[in-house]
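### Sample
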Amino acid sequence: MRLRLALAALLLTPLASGAQPSADVPVKRVILFTSGVGYFEHDGRVSGDADLTLRFEQSALDDVIKSLVVEDQQGRVSEVVYPSQAPLERRLQAFAVDLSGVGGIASLLTQMRGAALEVETAAGTFRGPLASVDGPTGGENDPGVRLTILTSGGLRTIQLSDARRVEILDAELRAEVEGALMALAEGSSGERKPVTVRFRGSRQRPVKLGYVVESPVWKTTYRLVLPQPGEADGYLQGWAVVENPTESDWDDVRLELVSGRPISFEMDLYSPRYLQRPTVQIPDDASGVRPRTYEDGVGANGVQSEKIQSARTVSGDEMENLPARSVAGVTALRGGVQAPAPPPPAAEPLALDAGVVSNAQAGALGELFAYILDGISIPRRGSAMLPIVTDAIGTERLSVYTPGSAGRHPLRGARITNRTDKHLRGGPITVFDDGYAGDALLNDLGPGDDRLVTFAVDQDVLVDPVPGSQDIGDVQTATIADGVLRIVRERVRRTGYRIENRGERDRTVLVEHPRMSGGALSSLTAEETTPALYRLRVDVAPGEADTLVVNETAPLSETYALASQTPERILALVRTTSGLSPEARRMLERAAALAEDVATAQRRLNALQNERGEISRDQDRIRQNLQAVDSDTDYGRRLLAKLDQQESRLEQLDREIEQAQADLNRRQQALRDGVRGMNAR
């Protein structure tokens, strides 16, 4: 690679005069989001025509292509160019001079045979087309590479080692060599790809450009100093951890740290995309009409056709007198091109700072907030910790006991109240209490909100659960609705906690008591309530102990569909359910009577079905005996007679069973109809 880049140094010296000056447009604004992307804005000045080249990892090119915005209000941007994704060797082979091989200067010059060169040596300057290139022979007196040029005075052979300068006079060939060398330079940069923005103008002017690329999520860490006894506020120091993953130094930039999650996605825009097109056959119309030729004719008035006259050459004076439509037609006949349509009005300039400010303003309305820091300097690929919070903060010392979390000891903690105007983003907290006290985690905390944090085990406090009890209380309500009896009783759960303070300071203990499903506290008021637990406050003096008793009540509901109950169960409910109204009691007794009718009919049907089953089993026995004896014997005749009697009884039972089933169905329907309209409180 180095050889191929160096061997062209003699050839490309004059090319520098044709390159555009590079622009210096530094990063001046960075917006980092918690969604893993960042917005980077460059702001500077350019003079005349200038090119700004930025380098990105290949993986970032899709985001750059998708999001790049450019502003040049006093000039224009001609194009934004970046290298193709095609392999380097394939790109090199596309140039007139192929630098994809590993040959030396002789190989390069051989590809330029016939091209006009100018070679400057100590003996003079020689100009003319290159006739041949003779490489080294490897002999003892080998003169090296020799060029033969056809000058005005004839062929002239020059040793390349004597050349001070070799210039390619063919501008097109020079551009091809320059393009190949630029491709080589881009390929030597590894995964970093150049993106060049070409500004075009006539004077010095301000320009901006911005883009969104993947970026590390900014993080927060805090230090909390607990207050001394008698003090209400602690001291909170917060730091933002920021990385500069770009190839540009951040020097005196405006940094905005936004806790927003804009919708962001990746799309492969860098890779070429081709669509498959259908192949359509050329229609073969065998019945087509062959072309014909015609002689020139004269009209009835002796004048040639007007259409044929219009095809003659028209002078410039005649064109000026023709109507616009005619001029357009004549221009088309002469091969001219119509003047282009007037350009559309210029679009409004891009406002690169729009949108981000609105995000920061929304922080006071929702979860979105931003920290804005000016004058930040972070070197490329560097990181920094930036102070974002240095304020007094409401802090109350607490010990938090959660059954089963830390044995008999609660956790030392604090309730933090955010009295600042800043939104504290979640992160780790290092707690200090006359020295290092422990680590805690803080969730997002908005202005005016408070949050519990715990950082150590409080070994000076012991908490022992007191064995509790659970009882089922008396009936609270008993109602009947559409034949369904609903009985509500009160369930009572009692739980106790014995708290002992063995330390030298007063302790405020928050007991996190699990909530009973559907229950409520009957005697205490919780300091805080979550969907899963109550937080109950207990103050314990040094060397003292206290017991917290928690009483909870919850309704226990029982339902009975009267149509599916036995009469005995319904009567038992009448006897055992207190709080029944007289009307409800009468309805239950009526339902018990209807259920008794159903039970009587069911017993009658069951008896008939049992008798039929016994006869059927006895007939099976008789048939087996008849197979073993002769039917003409006395015993055989007895069996046949009994079998005949049983058949007659079976016929009668079938009729009675049918009647009993119908009676049962009728009584069941009467029960359903009777209880359906029962409603009582």
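DSSP finds 13 helices and 29 strands in the chain. This sample (DUF4139 domain-containing protein) is used throughout the tutorial notebook.
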